[in-house]
Design a protein that fits this description.
With 409 residues, this protein is an alpha+beta fold. The chain is built from seven helices and 18 strands. Strands 2, 5, 7, 8, 9, 10, 11, 12, 16 and 18 form a ten-stranded antiparallel β-sheet that branches. Strands 1, 3, 4, 6, 13, 14, 15 and 17 form an eight-stranded mixed β-sheet that branches.
Length: 409
């Protein structure tokens, strides 16, 4: 039985107007968009997800059926509604659409271009994000998907063949080191010393996203500014090659200088002792929405704090110097891939969905209905959700200075 609710639910915006469910004249385009979004979700490239049926969409459908042994029938405009109905039967895809973390009426709709990030932002973050200047150059890297319950997700897609910004992609003149597509807080909106902030982010990681040994995929990081220089992150939340994890420098050694790479580009080098906290095996956070809430108190002494909740359960509460002399701290989210083990070896694409991203000076400002329980945990300095840990010592700054490296002032 065809579920007519699916028509128009999935709408990845590439500059076109929003389409209503009741507008029959656009029904075929909505069905095609739905089919394209499903093929994209399953890892088959349909081309732009724009409702326009073409050869790439037809080829993707054919490859999908061949690879999966599924006989949905040829995908054409008249049969796109059948594909939408089958898409809803896919448990993982239906799980993507089934998002409801946050109070009713929180979500904003009506975006008219794929640069309108506000539809996935909440709290004080609305209007305060921009694309990173080191993002890959691919118009298909960012799209938007309407979800059940009124929310909208940003679908970020990074392919190895897109390479990356020259200061990311090359190291010692060898290609294939790092690439990214991230949305970053504007510098004027950065978090200030001595203040407390609540942040939230929901992320959906499809099963086809893999991270090779010694590689990493960062979902969000908090980077300190010293003057006009951006330094290495105080904390990031990421996928390692085995675990969903937090890497942090709270209460740990961290000292940096701003120097230059061999190619002359600006580069931060640090002496640090990083702690890696493993939360869950990657397989346990895939094909479902993972709802993260985190709270920072930024300080240069032992009053610094970080708490992280996953699906409303406390994972960790950390105490210690969280600023390390920074003037303010900026937040980013998206995909930042580091190919530190697989450098030079092509890797599968990564497509990840983000929803309800934002920050506020209060928990209530994030549109959550679980704040009483979360706020009851803020005095807990413990790590009940951590299943393992590792320590990484970095002496890059000492080595750089000993070799006569120049620093910026």
């Amino acid at each position: 039985m065809f579920d007519r609710r699916l028509v128009g639910i999935v709408f990845v915006l590439l500059g076109g107007p929003a389409l209503g469910l009741a507008d029959a004249s656009f029904a075929s385009a909505n069905d095609v968009r739905c089919a394209q979004a499903y093929l994209d979700f399953k890892g088959f490239d349909p081309g732009p997800i724009d409702g326009s049926f073409g050869r790439r969409t037809a080829a993707a459908a054919s490859h999908y059926m061949e690879a999966t042994g599924t006989d949905v029938g040829e995908l054409t405009k008249p049969t796109a509604d059948v594909w939408c109905s089958r898409a809803r039967d896919d448990k993982a895809f239906a799980g993507l659409l089934d998002f409801s973390y946050g109070t009713a009426g929180l979500w904003r709709r009506g975006a008219t271009s794929n640069r309108d990030y506000n539809q996935v932002l909440v709290g004080d973050s609305v209007g305060k994000f921009q694309a990173s200047d080191r993002n890959i150059r691919n118009k298909a890297a960012l799209g938007f998907v309407e979800l059940d319950g009124g929310a909208v997700a940003a679908r970020i897609l990074v392919r190895y063949e897109d390479e990356g910004h020259r200061d990311d992609w090359y190291w010692n003149d060898k290609p294939g080191v790092q690439q990214r597509f991230e949305l970053a807080e504007r510098r004027s909106f950065s978090m200030k010393p001595g203040k407390t902030y609540w942040l939230r982010m929901s992320v959906f990681i499809p099963r086809n996203v893999v991270v090779s040994r010694l590689d990493q995929l960062v979902l969000t990081d908090l980077k300190p500014w010293v003057g006009r220089r951006l330094f290495d992150p105080v904390l990031n939340i990421k996928l390692g090659d085995r675990y969903f994890q937090v890497d942090h420098l709270i209460g740990r050694q961290h000292e940096c200088v701003h120097g230059f790479s061999e190619g002359g580009a600006e580069n931060t080098v640090c002496d640090s002792s990083k702690e890696q906290l493993f939360i869950k095996p990657i397989a346990e956070v895939q094909d479902r929405w993972v709802n993260l809430v985190y709270r920072f108190h930024w300080a240069n002494d032992d009053t610094g704090r970080f708490h992280l909740w996953m699906d409303d359960e406390l994972m960790m509460g950390l105490a210690g110097d969280s600023l390390h002399g920074a003037d303010f701290v900026a937040n980013k989210f998206g995909i930042y891939r580091g190919f530190y083990g697989s450098q030079g070896e092509p890797q599968p694409k990564a497509n990840i969905y983000f929803a309800g991203v934002g920050r506020s000076e209060t928990c209530g400002g994030l549109g959550l209905d679980t704040c009483d329980a979360l706020e009851a945990d803020v005095e807990r300095i413990e790590t009940p959700g951590v299943i393992g840990r590792n320590y990484v010592n970095d002496n890059s700054m000492s080595e750089y200075l000993a070799a006569g490296g120049r620093t910026m002032h």
